[in-house]
């Protein structure tokens, strides 16, 4: 006999009670595990010399790495990143690309829109919930720092006990990028100069931070002989080890500064199953086209001859006769030696100027049956964004409806919440352009081009349609592909078209049955793309071309919605413009 609360209990019964009590504790612990976790990261951001493509240059690293550490979490987890800025003479901010920041608009990480930049020598804490499973990104959102190496992946899994509508054996992550040898400062100075100095084409393409620049092409006599070293381990090709017969989920993302890309694995088909965190009705490709800011999951089965290895390639498409060599990696069949090169030459890329297969892929991306989020049947407001290139006071600028975007010194979210109406233009930008008379296929003078930092104010919970209309740039017979990214939301992709959008007939062709939801979408040359979203996330949100130089040159807008519903702003986002002294910690 033993005592329990002064009651005599037989020993066998006491063991049963103890066992049941332990089961209850375990259940509670398991229950808390199924619920949200807190995942903490401590990052130091600083410049270091690296050789991603064999040429040594200063890059921005996170804890010594580029790409930075991958954030892994489960749906509804809380992510806490304590970021210390050790850049010494440079501010920083990091955007969590694809994370909607519901309830935390101040941690979106967009300098000038949602926060002041993080000053050198200071530590800033980002804290947010990852509310949906999928493949996402993070990257710098200050100046043009993203292309200096400050980027990485966010992988969010389903809660325990839930499964995805496809199966695979292994999960791998690949970020594609282009790489410049000039610093972002040199590039920005050229873009702002009179006369204009374009950044040019990238020197290399990187596959998960690794590329190969031809060091023999360096002809500058004064160049340090050791600055480009083809044997540097930093630029060993990316290798993916595959077990024969196994199926791999490859999470493939693009964070290029300029380039649209095609991606392929020699001799292997890829089945597309996810785009920007949403399940796709599966379709098979041999070339996957990616635009900056997009993420995809594809399934690849290692079902080819296992006695050899295969090329992984990325190539530039959509830009005139690309001079940048392909990015090369190796799909290694275990147990072949990882350094064994494939016995073939890399497969040829798609024709750079053939838009048909790229448009076909855009049309093929539909929401998977059983995972369709039906869009509202109609919108409350339609805004047409004409993508134009202009000259304003001698500077070459990108513009939307002939208005080039400029960030104010006081972030929009703070100015709107505190009613600081004098810190940015209160006149709203235009909802459209001269549809009838504007010829999208010729070089326009665009004499009425202006610069503004005004915002689009959206009625809270309203449904908004955005029509992205592409046009000729200032170069004859040139219309560039622009990938547009929306912060704080996903949108339904209702359709794509060629030529000028017809506001009377084209809406009748919208896909309202199974449109995919995304956060980044291309508008193809001389074409249009139609989007729909709900303005249901209180905050100030950027919507912009994801090409670094284009956004720097003014190709973007800001939406404001439900500002009265935004909670108390944290003091940590203050400190610039007229926010200095606004709050005390």
UniProtKB/TrEMBL annotation:
Q: What is this protein called?
A: L-ascorbate oxidase
In which compartments does the protein localize? Secreted
Q: EC number(s)?
A: 1.10.3.3
Q: Which Pfam families match?
A: Cu-oxidase, Cu-oxidase_2, Cu-oxidase_3
Q: Name one GO molecular function term.
A: copper ion binding
* CC terms in the record's Gene Ontology section: extracellular region
Ranges for domain Plastocyanin-like: 45-156, 174-334, 441-562
Q: Does the keyword Iron apply?
A: no
Enzyme class (EC, first level): oxidoreductase
User: Which cofactor names does the annotation list?
Assistant: Cu cation
Record-stated family: Belongs to the multicopper oxidase family.
Q: How does it assemble?
A: Dimer.
What are the record keywords, sorted? Copper, Disulfide bond, Glycoprotein, Metal-binding, Oxidoreductase, Repeat, Secreted
Q: Where are the transmembrane segments?
A: none
Domain of life assignment: Eukaryota
This enzyme catalyses:
4 L-ascorbate + O2 = 4 monodehydro-L-ascorbate radical + 2 H2O
> InterPro entries in the record, alphabetically?
Cu-oxidase-like_N (IPR011707), Cu-oxidase_2nd (IPR001117), Cu-oxidase_C (IPR011706), Cu-oxidase_fam (IPR045087), Cu_oxidase_CS (IPR033138), Cu_oxidase_Cu_BS (IPR002355), Cupredoxin (IPR008972), CuRO_3_AAO (IPR034267)
Q: Which NCBIfam families match?
A: ascorbase
